[in-house]
């Protein structure tokens, strides 16, 4: 206990650096059009040291505080301390102005979070007056929103997928109202969710996801409504089956004159778990029902954050989030990782929920420097039942995790 208290006090005085908007490494052409340089380009680096201390809870090997990855069947609560630089980001961006006055913006952004420090592409797109083509934040999410936190996962129901797309955006006669229409590349990542495996396999996807969004902007912030429609293909016992996924998201931000702000996002639908941070890519979009057909997984979730400025430099954030999955009439599933198919559970239900909370303090010592401390806490519940070897079972598991996140970021 004294060891934990000592490390907690040590962490309290550990700095990390956030960033402003200006880039140091910027070049511009001498000629201009409409008082704008014909060409302007910059290279920026967000150099971050990511450090975290796990108090308990089975996330010792995970760089982010992903509540969905808590191992509810594990019992290893050993404390651990980790440090890495993989969240360092680099961005190259350019603005072009043509003789017609049309402006084009292009960006390439990458980090080193591709596994063992390998590079990973984050963004690469070209944007003109009404079109964006390339890879950026998926239009189903609200790219302006992000709670001011140090850990990189975010709330379990957050929608922060980056995907290749072709997006059209415009405003109505009232400029406060805007809309987006986007064709998004289907999510293809598939890794088995071992704690609750529905024994389906991934398949090649044939159609893009369609996203429609409507946004109302004011000087205090915005409200945004988005919807998604997708066709998902899975394989069951060697036979390919497809099902329809759909969802809605309501999000927004409210800002005050003294920089306090409230952010929120609510999401619900079926067959869209691939967009949720907690179980994205775990093959949880659909499951086999009692008719041996694949049914879309229902989901509901949301998160909210509030940032309060005690002074111009001292501020604090509190974040809460949850995600709930409710699978009914599941034809078959495995409840434990790496066990024999003789233990397949038949004709059951499953309730799966994640809860997430964060509290931090931050101090803006300089324009490009913030010192702070963050406490992360999450709970994962898995309640499944069914018939196992002609006997009805009800397996209910729950586990929580706690982490202290801190680090260092330098922006230039």
Write a concise keyword list for the protein shown above:
412 residues, Porin, 16-stranded antiparallel beta barrel, mainly beta, 24 strands
Report what the structure shows.
A 16-stranded antiparallel beta barrel has the order 5-7-8-9-10-11-12-14-15-16-17-20-21-22-23-24. Strands 3-4 form a two-stranded antiparallel sheet. It is 3% helix and 58% strand. It has one domain (2-411): Porin (Beta Barrel). With 412 residues, it is mainly β.
Summarize the structure.
With 412 residues, the protein is mostly beta strands. Helix content is 3%, strand content 58%. Residues 1-20 have low confidence and may be disordered.
Overall tally of domains: 1
The CATH architecture name reads Beta Barrel
What Rg do the Cα atoms give?
23 Å
Most strands sheet: 16 strands, antiparallel, barrel
Overall pLDDT score = 88
Helix content: under 10%
Number of helix segments?
Answer: 1
Distance between the termini: 40 Å
What's the β-strand tally? 24
Spatial shape: globular
What class would the helix/strand composition place it in?
A: mainly beta
Taken as a percent bin, the fraction of beta residues is: over 45%
**CATH superfamily, called what?**
Porin
Q: Low-confidence runs (pLDDT<50, min 5 residues)?
A: 1-20
User: Which fold name corresponds to the CATH topology?
Assistant: Porin
């Amino acid at each position: 206990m004294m060891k934990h208290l000592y490390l907690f006090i040590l962490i309290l005085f550990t700095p990390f650096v956030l960033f402003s908007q200006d880039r140091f490494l910027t070049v511009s052409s001498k000629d201009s059009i409409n008082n704008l340089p014909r060409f302007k380009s910059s290279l920026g680096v967000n150099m971050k040291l990511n450090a975290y201390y796990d108090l308990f809870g089975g996330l010792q090997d995970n760089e982010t505080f992903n509540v969905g990855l808590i191992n509810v069947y594990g019992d290893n609560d050993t404390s651990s301390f980790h440090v890495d630089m993989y969240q360092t980001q680099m961005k190259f961006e350019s603005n072009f102005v043509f003789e017609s006055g049309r402006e084009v913006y292009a960006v390439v952004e990458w980090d080193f979070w591709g596994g063992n420090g390998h590079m990973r592409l984050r963004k690469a797109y070209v944007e003109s007056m009404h079109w964006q083509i390339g890879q950026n934040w998926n239009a189903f999410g609200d790219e302006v929103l992000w709670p001011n936190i140090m850990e990189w996962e975010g709330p379990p129901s957050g929608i922060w997928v980056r995907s290749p797309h072709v997006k059209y955006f415009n405003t109505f006669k009232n400029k406060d109202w805007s809309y987006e229409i986007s064709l998004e590349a289907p999510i293809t990542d598939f890794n088995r969710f071992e704690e609750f495996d529905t024994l389906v396999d991934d398949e090649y996807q044939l159609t893009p996801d369609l996203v429609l969004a409507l946004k109302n902007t004011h000087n205090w912030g915005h409200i945004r409504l988005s919807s998604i429609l997708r066709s998902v293909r899975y394989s069951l016992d060697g036979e390919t089956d497809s099902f329809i996924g759909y969802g809605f998201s309501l999000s927004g931000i409210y800002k005050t004159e003294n920089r306090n702000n409230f952010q929120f996002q609510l999401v619900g639908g079926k067959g869209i778990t691939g967009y949720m941070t907690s179980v994205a890519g775990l093959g949880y979009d659909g499951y086999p029902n009692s008719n041996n057909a694949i049914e879309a997984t229902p989901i509901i979730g949301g998160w909210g954050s509030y940032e309060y400025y005690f002074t111009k430099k001292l501020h604090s954030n509190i974040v809460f989030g949850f995600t709930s999955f409710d699978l009914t009439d599941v034809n078959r599933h495995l409840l434990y990782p790496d066990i024999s198919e003789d233990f397949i559970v038949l004709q059951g239900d499953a309730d799966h929920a994640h809860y997430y909370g964060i509290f931090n303090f931050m101090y803006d010592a300089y324009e490009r420097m913030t010192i702070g401390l963050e406490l992360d806490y999450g709970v994962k519940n898995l309640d499944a039942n069914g018939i196992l070897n002609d006997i009805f079972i009800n397996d209910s598991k729950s586990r929580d995790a706690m982490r202290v996140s801190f680090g260092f970021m330098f922006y230039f």
